[in-house]
UniProtKB/TrEMBL annotation:
It comes from the Eukaryota. One of its GO terms (biological process) is axoneme assembly. GO terms for cellular component: axonemal central apparatus. Keywords: Repeat, WD repeat. WD repeats lie at residues 25-66, 67-108, 109-148. Pfam families: WD40. This is SPG16 protein. InterPro entries: WD-F-box_domain-protein, WD40/YVTN_repeat-like_dom_sf, WD40_PAC1, WD40_repeat_CS, WD40_repeat_dom_sf, WD40_rpt.
Length: 148
């Protein structure tokens, strides 16, 4: 199964090798910039030009949570390997770590001078990698919200 997002505001899961559409999701009000499966595979996260991050439950065929807090478009998103946290990267120059149990932003990563274009958790750790339009990469400790 492959997951895609598009400027048509829709995510799709595709079956292979046939290439047939298995499921779609609508709800964002602007282009999709990122999407990825939760490590368990039962949920996915999407990021969008509408400045939101959404959590989707595949068994319920819909959005179960909309995370708001970025002031500009969100460029990317990723899951922590434990599945309890999501990270997002935004044109507002920040990255955010979202706690899915409390449904709130756990911390905001500030320090880049321009748009944060991507964000990834290093596997099985609290370390987060961000890349920015300011031509820098940063490693962060999500527990202390400090650069490494």
């Amino acid at each position: 199964i492959m997951l895609t997002g598009s400027d048509d505001r829709v995510w799709r899961t595709w079956g292979f090798p046939e290439g047939n559409i298995l499921m779609t999701g609508e709800g964002h009000t602007d282009w999709l910039s990122g999407c990825c499966f939760r490590p368990s595979g039962m949920q996915l996260v999407t990021s969008s030009g509408d400045s939101t991050v959404r959590i989707w439950d595949l068994s319920r065929h819909g959005c179960i949570l909309t995370l708001r807090g970025h002031s500009r478009a969100v460029h990317g998103c990723s899951w922590h390997s434990c599945g309890d946290f999501v990270a997002s990267a935004s044109m507002d120059g920040t990255g955010k770590i979202w706690d899915l149990h409390s449904e709130r932003c756990r911390c905001t990563l500030r320090g880049h001078k321009e748009s944060v274009n991507s964000i990834e958790f290093l596997p099985f750790s609290s370390t987060v990698l961000t890349s920015s339009a300011d031509k820098t990469l940063s490693l962060w400790d999500a527990r202390t919200v400090s650069r490494l």
